[in-house]
Amino acid sequence: MSDRGAGRRLLSSVFAALVAAACFTASAQAQTHVLIASGLGGEPRFSQRFRALGADLASALQRKYRIAAPNIGWFGEDSTFADSHYRGRSTRDALEKEIAAMRARAKAGEQIVVIFIGHGAGQEGESRVSLPGPDVTVGDVQRWMAGFTEQRVAVVNLTSGSGDFLPILAAPGRVVITATKTAFERNESRFAEFFVKAYTADVADVDKDGRVSLLEAFRYAARETKRVYDDATKLQTEHAQLDDNGTKQNTAEPTGRDGQGLLARRFFFEAPGAPGAPIAAGGDQGIAALYHERFALEGRIDSLRALKPKLTPALYDAELEIVLVSLARKSREIRKAEGRP
Amino acid sequence: MRQSLRFPTVVLLVTGALLPSRLLSQQRQAIESFSEARIAIAMGKYAEATAYLERLPRTDSTWMDAQVELVRAFALISKYDDAERVARQAVAAPNGKEALTALGELMRTRGRLAAADSAFARAVAEHASDSLMASLNLALLAKARGDKAVPARGLDHFIDVYNSAAGSLTSREMMAVAIACRELGETNAELFKDALKAFDRAITLDPANIDARVALGELFLEKYNGAEAQRTLDEVLQINASHPGALVAAARRLVFDGQPGADSLLATALAVSPEFVPARLMMARGSMDLERYADAARDAERALKANPSDAGALATLAAARFVGGDQRAYADARARALALNAHDAGFFVTLAEAAGRVRRYAIAADFARQAIAADSANWKAHSVLGMNLLRLGKIADGRQSLEVAFKGDPFDVWVKNTLDLLDTFKNYDESTSEHAVFMIEKQESALLTIYLKDLAEKAYAKFQQRYQYAAPPPVRIEVYRSHADFSVRTVGLSGLGALGVSFGTTLAFDSPAAKDAGPFNWASTVWHELAHTFTLGSTDHRIPRWLSEGLSVWEEHQARAGWGASVSPGFLEAYRAGKLVPISRMNDGFMRPTYPEQIGYSYYQGSLVCDLIVKDWGEKAITGLLAEYRGGRTTDEAFQKVTGMDMKAFDRRFDAYMKERFGPVLEALALPGPEYPAGMGAAQFLARADSFPASYRAQVMAATPLVRARMHDEAVRVLERAHALFPAFGGDDSPASNLAVLYRAKGDTAKEIAMLKVLTLSDESNYAANMHLASLLIVRGDTAGALEASERALFINPFAPELHVVLARLYEARGDQAMRVREREALVALDPVDKSEALYELAVAYRAAGDLVKAKRAVLRALEDAPNFERAQDLLLAIVDGRKP
């Protein structure tokens, strides 16, 4: 019993912070501005693949995640393409202009997402993405991102040989994802297709909250990429990385529990009102209250998980059961209030 | 990772330098001088050279040198009496001291050690020009007697000689320094490198010093550098393809590198020098590997006839007698060996290695301990002890011995590899079942233990009942994700072409995830190796290799339809061509294959022998045979007792059985069918197939052209005929596999299913066929059939999540909640991306199986990662609220 009491005391010490974090997640469902740049294919099969990935992602962002069409800019290898999101060739100038436009329209607290698809080349400061005309270098991207001081930023480089982008772009408060560990992993990358699939198909929502976080998309794509190589009994030639705290440590398998992944775990594309997005401010106050109670319970679960190493398994499970049962009952109340089965 | 000493590969200045081309060209002409005769000996022209040297008059200024060469040449080709005659004449002649060392070496070769010692001592005392070599020989003789002080002093002296007079030493003197350094290397490994340097200089000084070249090759071999040994010995054999020492060393190198051809090199060596002891001893060791202990003893005895004091021959004789079960003869050989040197660690090492090679690991470890007791600085003994302790499952003790061995001999790649592997054991989980302990790499242990525990316990129960023997638990089962690691665990080196190994109660396997192993049936492999545990254990490890393998395959066949090696056209063609070994020599098929497929055929042939025994004499005859082996009987004796037949009669019975069992197929294969001139079209192939409907070959020859010509109906016709002629064959490119494709194209699912069943029941590793069959049977509502196919697929690849989903649903449909739980547990063990879903499904399965405690625990784990997982929330509430499923 004394253990149980001690556990509760410890639990309360982090409770407030985690509840706050949960509430922040809810309030942070602001507009997301996305730039997708698919680069040169070099061969028809690559051009076709990069085009398809860009189109699928842009389409899903509007259709599934309800991001406003003007907030989605997709640039590609071709001059024209029959897609409402397509903005033309992905030249460095065009991308730079789009970044400037995003900077002009994005408000404080909103989200900026830049995604590169295609082939990469170069090392360290010379790392770049192959585009029509001059390539975009990591230095360009660093300069572009520096202008977003009041927004949450994610740079997702899905190109081969993209690994050296991460140590240069990594910064506190910024999510950086690369398809490879280093610039030397130059072989054809499979990570991109699984990353896009995480957003286009219902496959990556592992915490079952109805949304796909950047962390979930990353983990899904990394796992499936590994499986492709395992199934083909080949040595894996790409190892995706994620950094969202600027430390550049433990980037291959971020857990989102501590260290890497905490920010990416709470980085969602859903616009307010999209399926799975938390209730918008100004909605039904009764339901909003229920949600806030649910957020509080989620916070208790987070804090309990943080304490897991210090608790006996039996005590941990007992505490977990109490909170999870409460959460389950609260969710049922919400569903009932929302008229869902 | 520990650093090993890599024996230098290229430090030699002139090892590659061959004999002077001028001299080589002269070998086409008659020998006209001593130096030409010497070159001729170096090149293996023994008859011509010795004839010339014998004719040389005493008045010739080179006469004494010629006599020394003559002695050594005669000795090289086993003409010991001639050699002794010449040596004694030379010693009796003026300046005869120059022949004393050669005489001493000859006496040593003939086992007359006192006479050898005396001759060497005289050479030293009388300051013969080769007294340095005589000094070395005295030290080596003392060492062979077990006198430690004398050789240590004597050998150390050679380092001083080198340091003070290297520039003035002759080639043979430099070779003496090299040999001294090699001997000293046993206690200071760095000196092996000095030996290498000295051999190099000896060859530089005299490119015709073939002995130095051979000794250098042997040194490379002793230090585990097969590539340099081969290069050195190849050079020697290029100069002299008849040098017995080089031939034997080259044969050893082939064995070292796992390459065939050693037998023919040994045969050549013995043709040149019929009494050459190293060749005889290697022959004996080969016979021991084939478990022909009488043959081994015969070779060892013959070696001893040439040299009654050869420690290696005495040890080999003792080993042959011991593993052959003749304790009295063993005791006699042992007494003779130890009378020469009571502290001969090498004697016990030979015994230990021989026992280990015939799978008697505990005895091998005991002999290794005796070797260490005789000489604690015998690093080979520590290595052999360590390896055998690991085979016995004594990991910590084995490691300790290997650490000692490696410290003493850092060149030993087997020991280094094994120690490096042991360092990785921290990455493995250990778990237990009633009779076994499992060591499996952490990332797959959760999954594999689900199946392995069940499989191992079922096998244990089955074999215990069949063999009336309880293997002492725990049986240690190690599973390796890396085939290279498995190979190192098994033989100390990578590259082993097996999937599993049984050391008795310690087994090692490739994991089904081992990329470099290719697809294989891991469950039948486990079954096979566990069968060895019982057949080895119940016979006190005396069962011959071939029968143990045959029984293991036979047990696979008994366990599940489709498991184990099966009949193929290749096997039956080999039988028809007389390429299967007779049962009386079946170990040859495993240990001395003469064509690449022979080992595989021998496994199947061994199982057919077991089928025959059970058919003619009943299953009890199997245990009867094992009892005879346990009692120390030979195969001849055991078969005579149990079957009433000698091995020749049994060979005849087996031949008749083959005809009984495969008669119609053999006939179909024997039919030659028509000729096939180039440029024939599909219609012509078809016409020939139709004209020779009983010819298997005629049908299969027509199938591919017909498919290419899109004549699918006709292709089906010939393939159906072929399948009817050989219905049991379902391997790659079998009629059944091609028919399955054609039936599928035609949309004839029923016939496709029938062919897929043939494939899956005759090829235990056909994952794709099993998965496809399962999917077809599911559509047809054949749950039982789909389950069978899916379970077979599981034994090939347990890592496919979709397979476990299919199995879980099939078991759910059949109402088998326990098996449904097993599959849901497997899915969780696979650590899928969507683990919460997997845990939820597991919780549902537990609840359906009535295990609410586990159900609640699983759903809590699901919700721990996905707290808002609504289906899991509902399930949790249902469980805590006590609602029924």
Give the count of helical stretches of chain A: 9
In total, how many beta strands of chain A?
10
Number of helices of chain B: 46
CATH class of the largest domain in chain A: Alpha Beta
> What kind of sheet is the major sheet of chain B?
5 strands, mixed
Largest interface: A-B, 29 and 26 residues
Q: From the alpha carbons, calculate the radius of gyration of chain B and give it in angstroms.
A: 33 Å
Q: Key features?
A:
heterodimer, A: 341 residues, alpha/beta, Rossmann fold, seven-stranded mixed beta sheet, three-stranded antiparallel beta sheet, globular, B: 885 residues, mainly alpha, Serine Threonine Protein Phosphatase 5, Tetratricopeptide repeat, 5 strands
Protein model, in words:
The complex is a heterodimer of chains A (341) and B (885). In chain A, 44% of the residues lie in helices and 13% in strands. With 341 residues, chain A is an alpha/beta fold. Chain A folds into two domains: 82 residues; 237 residues, Rossmann fold, CATH 3.40.50.1460. In chain A, helix 1 crosses helix 8 and helix 6 packs across helix 7. The longest helix of chain A is centred in the N-terminal third of the chain and has 26 residues. The N terminus of chain A is likely disordered. In chain B, helix 12 runs antiparallel to helix 13, helix 23 crosses helix 24 and helix 41 packs antiparallel against helix 42. Chain B is globular. The two termini of chain B are 55 Å apart. About 1% of the residues of chain B have low confidence. The interface between A and B is medium-sized, with 29 and 26 residues.
